[in-house]
Amino acid sequence: MAETETPAFQIIVLGPNGGPREDSVTGVLVRSTSMNWSPGSLVAVDAGTLLAGIIRILKLFLPDSKDEEGFMTAGPFKGLHLPAQSAEANAAHIFREIIGAVLITHPHLDHISGLAINTPILEAGSGPKPVAALPSVLSAIKNHMFNDIIWPNLSDEDGGAGLLTYQRLVEGGNTRFGSGESRGYVRACNGILTKCLAVSHGRCKQRYHPESATHHRIGSAVFPSEQFMLPSRAVSMDHTDASFYSPARSPRLLPANSKEPIMATVESSAFFLRDHRTGKEIIIFGDLEPDTISLEPRNKRVWETAAPKIHAGTLRAIFIECSFTDSIDDAYLYGHLCPRHMVAELSALASTVMALREPGPLPDKKRKRPNTGFGDGTGSPVSPRTKRGSNPPSEKDQKLEPRSGDFSVPDLSDSFADGTDSKDVDVSNIASWADADPLPLTGLSVYIIHIKENLTDGPSPEEQILRELQAHAKEAHLGCEFFLPDPTEGIWV
């Protein structure tokens, strides 16, 4: 962003980590700077950490950074009028009055636990707080959390307390709303519009079923074991570039070996947030996995949506997870990214940006992922620990235990669901933009979130991940900058 340009967004990362500590897991606040802290002008993206993160920040700056009229004079909440004296009471005020809505990327506890614990402080007289997400995400929250068993039903559905209201988003955007560059976007909060795209976050043995609006174990009465008894709303398993399916509206993925368990994709989300006044945008990802090892590779759609915005100079920042260092094997990513895979994904984005700069013939459907100068020499940016070109060793051969707290995944295949080889991704040769001026992602800031803490006496993974990302990105000639967000400082883009 040019030094003379006024920032369109302020972002406060309340929870930058992916566990195992429960007090700093994923939670992000975003506001349009044009709204000047007016009521309903903040949107929370995920709520693993919410009130606890706000209180922690306020305690660092109160009371010294508060003038006689109650306005904050320093810190991420600078300029906000706080009516109370204590950090706790002011945090409750921010949650009740300033946060206009909560967007949820996916229903794992490290992204929704704060929403459950914090919601009882809402006041019914001010109306229910909107919780917006894809239908499958809200179905999980409704049926498995706010269900009067795990937690009281605090929603306004099924006779609940009415403190929350569910806003079911249309995947890919609702084209009934907006026009031009804003087409498909809906209101997130005062001053900010949003559009949600689904991404994949590993695999599991449960799927969301749209007719019952609940999640079921595959092989249950809703998803019978007979191969040809599929849900009535199932669509064709066509995996051409023109088609897209999500677990919410597609048949289950059947194994080649009938004795193997039937696996489904865990659905997560990427939120495009658009400043209504300037048209500037940012993207905040939930947890996601690389397309190269996914049952349903969907990141490409996000990059195809993002590339024109980078080309036009309107997309300013990406907030994206990078849970592990490059020492992790692909078989133990559990639906997450590590530096080698993140840079490979960003290279796919860069390729699309370069194609917009230099329009030419449409590429073939299959293009080999480029040799970035790092990795295994096969064209895939991987570490020596990554197994490519064949299935990873079986659990028996590896004799490795899954990480505690993570869901397990079966042995990975070297092919996509449509039979495309995992290295056959539509990415141009990086050498074609090595001398580009500017480099394809110049001006894009990439903020790393959801890093898994190791809680040992050794070095923390944050700096190692940052170094690995910077080294890979330099060899890939991307041009973007990587940052580790500081929860005590606001990010301005």
Descriptive overview:
Residues 394-404 have a biased composition (Basic and acidic residues). One of its GO terms (biological process) is negative regulation of glucose mediated signaling pathway. One of its GO terms (molecular function) is 3',5'-cyclic-AMP phosphodiesterase activity. With 493 residues, the chain is α/β, with parallel strands linked by helices. The protein has a domain at 210-262. 19% of the residues lie in helices and 19% in strands. It is built from eight helices and 16 strands. It has helices spanning 51-61, 87-98, 109-118, 135-144, 299-312, 339-357, 395-398, 461-476; strands at 9-15, 27-32, 42-47, 99-103, 129-133, 164-168, 186-189, 192-204, 206-209, 214-217, 264-275, 281-285, 315-321, 445-449, 481-483, 491-492. The strands form three sheets. It has a seven-stranded mixed sheet. A seven-stranded mixed sheet has the order 7-8-11-12-13-14-15, covered by helices on one side. Strands 9-10 form a two-stranded antiparallel ribbon. A hairpin with a 2-residue loop joins strand 7 (186-189) and strand 8. It starts with 8 loop residues before the first strand and ends with a strand. The relative contact order is 0.13.
In total, how many beta strands?
A: 16
Chain-averaged pLDDT:
82
> What portion of residues is helical?
10-25%
Spatial shape: globular
Q: What is the H/E string?
A: EEEHHEHEHEEEEEEEHEHHEHEE
